């Protein structure tokens, strides 16, 4: 995740270019292309942690797993209502938007290569957990910006920390193209409860996660 004390994902929309090569690539993959349909209202935004930082941050996503044989293509998509700071929390407690069907707030498309294997032709489970944590973290980041815009309390400038990431592996993930989806379940003060999942072709769910993020007070826990 970006250092949210000094920067937020929404700060970089329009300032850092979106990866057009990634858009072009995923547009050739039918189950990935479906997320790019305008009716989904999922907007391509800068994948902040895929960009190198002068202070040495984000080296895992920007360097270690950014190569031809690891993750050559990645594309981050943010719900338009979040990008426009128009996300509607469904009650005074800031719970997720109304509706019980799975409606992702944030999606990232990944092309997973064969240098991420644990078992042969099987992506390492620790890497899958990292992808879930990253995408859920971006989701919280955008939602915090919406809460700040609505509440005017400046809380989203504080740091966000993963308190837990409870992961369930449903089936092995082979090299290929997958979507990592995230959505808000509810928030309780500084606590943000979310769900994430990794989805492949034909909507098959490979991995799921229950996640708690906590906002710090005054930039410290």
- SSE sequence, one letter per element: HHEHEHEHEEEE
CATH topology: Thiol Ester Dehydrase, Chain A
Whole-number total of structural domains: 1
CATH architecture: Roll
What is the SS-derived class?
Answer: alpha+beta
Strand order of the largest sheet: 1-2-3-5-6-7-4
- Which segments are poorly predicted (pLDDT under 50) over 5 or more consecutive residues? 1-6
- Per DSSP, the total helix count is 5
Supply the CATH superfamily name.
Hotdog Thioesterase
Query: Could you give a short account of the major beta sheet?
Result: 7 strands, antiparallel
Shape: globular
The average pLDDT value, as a whole number, equals 88
What is the C-alpha radius of gyration, as a whole number of Å? 16 Å
Percentage of residues assigned to helices: 10-25%
N/C terminus separation: 17 Å
- The level 1 CATH classification is Alpha Beta
The tally of strands reads 7
Report strand %.
Answer: 25-35%
Domain Thioesterase: 122-203
Pfam families: 4HBT
InterPro entries: HotDog_dom_sf, PTE-AB_protein, Thioestr_dom
Organism: Cordyceps javanica
Describe the secondary structure blueprint for this structure.
Elements: H1 20-26, H2 30-33, E1 42-45, H3 59-64, E2 74-79, H4 80-83, E3 106-112, H5 125-151, E4 160-169, E5 176-188, E6 191-199, E7 205-215
Antiparallel strand pairs: 1-2, 2-3, 3-5, 4-7, 5-6, 6-7
């Amino acid at each position: 995740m970006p250092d949210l004390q000094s920067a937020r994902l929404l700060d970089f929309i329009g300032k850092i270019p979106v990866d057009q090569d990634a858009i072009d690539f995923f547009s050739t993959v039918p189950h990935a292309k479906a997320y790019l349909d305008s009716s989904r209202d999922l907007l391509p935004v800068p994948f902040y942690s895929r960009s190198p930082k002068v202070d040495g941050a984000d080296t895992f996503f920007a360097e270690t797993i950014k190569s031809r044989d690891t993750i050559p293509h990645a594309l981050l998509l943010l719900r338009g209502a979040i990008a426009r700071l128009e996300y509607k929390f469904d009650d005074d407690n800031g719970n997720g938007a109304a509706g019980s069907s799975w409606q992702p707030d944030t999606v990232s498309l990944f092309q997973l290569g064969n240098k991420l294997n644990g078992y042969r032709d099987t992506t390492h489970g620790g890497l899958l957990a990292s992808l879930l944590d990253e995408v859920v973290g971006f989701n919280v980041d955008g939602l915090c910006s919406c809460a700040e815009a609505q509440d005017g309390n400046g809380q989203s400038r504080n740091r966000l920390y993963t308190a837990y990431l409870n992961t369930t592996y449903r089936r092995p993930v082979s090299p290929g193209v997958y979507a990592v989806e995230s959505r808000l379940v509810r928030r309780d003060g500084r606590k943000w409860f979310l769900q994430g999942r990794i989805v492949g072709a034909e909507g098959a769910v490979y991995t799921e996660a229950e996640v708690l993020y906590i906002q710090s007070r005054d930039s410290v826990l």
